Amino acid sequence: MAEDLTIIRSASKAEQYTSLIPQIQALLEGEPDLVANLANIAAALKEQFGWFWVGFYLVKGDELVLGSFQGPVACTRIAKGRGVCGTAWAEAKTLVVPDVDTFPGHIACSSLSRSEIVVPLLHNGLVAGVLDVDSEALDQFDATDAQYLEEIVKLIKW
């Protein structure tokens, strides 16, 4: 298992992801524990990109429950269809929100969050959780982030 990351910031966003993905694969290789793997993915993404908040919510019954994350304290439970995370769960699709203040029903866990991307975690064809990433900058996320974050969550073994 790799325990150090090689961080590159002087490259394009796509190149940063391309460098990070094999490192995440190495972190996950041989580790069967879901919590440990989610924690390392969140840490690797936060370390590489310096985003405000990176973490996971897992489906438990009719709610998303806070899981492994990096950043300030967060909302603990989110109902299906509520906020960006709950909507991504309900719609089973990645949501890119350039300005969270314009998203109907946005849940403000922190007033410092300005833009967000949420990627569903699929397990056996169902949404089992979401990867949630927040930035203090407006319009931080785009189709490149969606593409590579979707690739990263596919690495998760259930």
Order of helices and strands: HHEEEHEEEH
Uncertain parts:
none
Structure annotation, total helices: 4
Which overall shape is indicated by the principal axes computed on the Cα atoms?
A: globular
Q: What's the pLDDT, averaged over the residues?
A: 94
Distance between the termini: 18 Å
Strand content: 25-35%
> CATH H-level name... which superfamily?
GAF domain
- Order of neighbouring strands in the sheet with most strands: 3-2-1-6-5-4
CATH topology label: Beta-Lactamase
- Main sheet makeup: 6 strands, antiparallel
Structural class: alpha+beta
Q: At CATH's second level, what is the architecture? A: 2-Layer Sandwich
Level-1 CATH class name: Alpha Beta
Portion in helices? 25-40%
Secondary structure tally: strands: 6
